[in-house]
Amino acid sequence: MLIDSILGTVISFSFTLFLTPIFKNILTKYSVLELRNKRKIHKKLVPSMGGVIFVFSFFCGLLFTFEISELSEVKYIILSLLMMLFIGLRDDIIPIPAKEKLISQILPILLIIFFNNYHLKSLNGFLGIYDLPYWLGVVLSTLVFLCIVNSYNLIDGIDGLACSISVITLSVFNILLITNSFKSLMSDAVIILIASIVAFLVYNWQPAKIFMGDTGALFLGFFNSILVLDFINTPNETISSPLAFILAILAIPIIDTLRTFISRIIRGVSPFTPDKTHIHHMLLRLGLSHSQTVFLLSIVNLMFILVAFLIKSFPDTISIVLITSLGLLSSLSLDLMVKRKILLRKSN
Predict the structure, then answer these.
(1) Could you please report the per-residue DSSP string of 94-154?
(2) 3-state secondary structure of 40
(3) Residues 68-77: pLDDT tens digits?
(4) Cα–Cα distance for residue pair 211/215, rounded to 1 Å
(5) Distance between CA 244 and CA 227 in Å, rounded?
(6) Cα–chain center distance at 238
(7) Which whole-number Å values give the CA distances from 209 to 28, 40, 43, 87, 203, in the listed order?
(8) Phi-psi region of 181 (alpha: psi -120 to 50; beta: other; left: phi over 0)
(9) Predicted confidence band at 18 (pLDDT cuts at 50, 70, 90)?
(10) Do 64 and 7 touch, CB atoms closer than 8 A?
(11) Backbone phi, then psi, for 125, in 5-degree steps?
């Protein structure tokens, strides 16, 4: 089994490394390029839909690692992942309005909730709430899936960011699940996916030669969402605050989404209106390059995870308040730094 896992990981990495430049050349030849608009920060036209390759390579790695009978046990997970992939692919080819895209994501989410029983069963004492009624668990789970899926889509705005954050989140989730005696199929699948993402990052790092597009971002967000539900619903004797851990692991995507939506609402516009107010945009305004921004946000994400480990014995309610406060403080500090730089430019 170990040899099969290593083989699957090597195949996933190698296929992505080899196929990505070929796919890029095909997209360039037929002018399948990222459309320019006022919120895009890239001056050159770059091929998108790169997620097709690292997802394809990931599934090839799975086929070399597991028997068909093993994969059939998670057929609804695979089917829902493929559905989310095609929603992203459709949006990359012919853009879908934000609200329609959000609604379309509900189908694969409900598929995995009802056929794989992926829904919240308890809040682990957060706000004094433990076991949840089935209907409430389904509703909250749907919202959790939607939030995480789209938060990954929103951070995919600069070279290498979504890939780098995904490597961090997937790695941490896998460590937590493995140490908690979690099923090996999912943990092996995570390693195979990480290998594929790392290979794709070679071409997605600044200056990016290809973007993952919604095809890749929605897939990664959905995959992380599945791990979130697995982690929350798996009993853990060493961690008293699983919800806070989730918040810390997904700190960058979640905090960025919340601050952006709140900012838009305060300005009187729809939270789904695209703009350049994301955290990575703000850091670019401070003069950081794409790669510097990615390094900084990756370090910040790891710091949130470290804080979660330090307070893992705290109740969820206290831990969530602490981590949320840290996130708000970081966000406000960034806004103040950007405003100060703007004022300095005007004064000069």
Answers:
(1) S---HHHHHHHTHHHHHHHHHHH--S--EEEEETTEEE--HHHHHHHHHHHHHHHHHHHHH
(2) coil
(3) 988 998 999 9
(4) 10
(5) 15
(6) 25
(7) 10, 15, 13, 23, 5
(8) left
(9) very high
(10) yes
(11) 90, 0
What are the helix and strand counts (H, E) for the chain?
15, 2
Answer whether the bond into residue 97 is a cis peptide, omega within 30°: no
Alpha-carbon distance of 62 to 261, in angstroms, equals 37
Query: Which tens digits make up the pLDDT trace of 78-132?
Result: 999 999 999 999 999 888 888 899 999 999 999 999 998 889 998 887 878 889 9
In DSSP notation, 240-279 reads S-HHHHHHHHTHHHHHHHHHHHHHHHHTTS-TT---S-SH
Residue 285's pLDDT band, with cuts at 50, 70 and 90, is confident
For residue 196, pLDDT over 90 is answered with yes
Alpha carbons 311 and 106: distance in angstroms, whole number: 34
Which residue in this structure is represented by tokens 């895209």? 101
Residue pair 244/320 in contact (Cβ under 8 Å)? The answer is yes
CA angle, 157 then 161 then 166, to 5°: 120
Residue 135 pLDDT > 90:
yes
CA distance 307 to 277: 26
- Do residues 152 and 221 make contact, with C-beta atoms less than 8 angstroms apart? yes
Name the CA dihedral angle for 57, 185, 137, 241, rounded to a multiple of 10 degrees: -100
Beta bridge partners of 122: 131
Compute the Cα dihedral for 30, 22, 167, 72 and give only its sign: positive
What pLDDT sits at residue 306? 94
Check residue 239 and give its pLDDT. 79
| Strands of the chain, DSSP E | 122-126, 129-131
Q: Environment class of residue 88 by beta-carbon count within 10 Å: exposed (0-12), middle (13-18) or buried (19+)?
A: buried
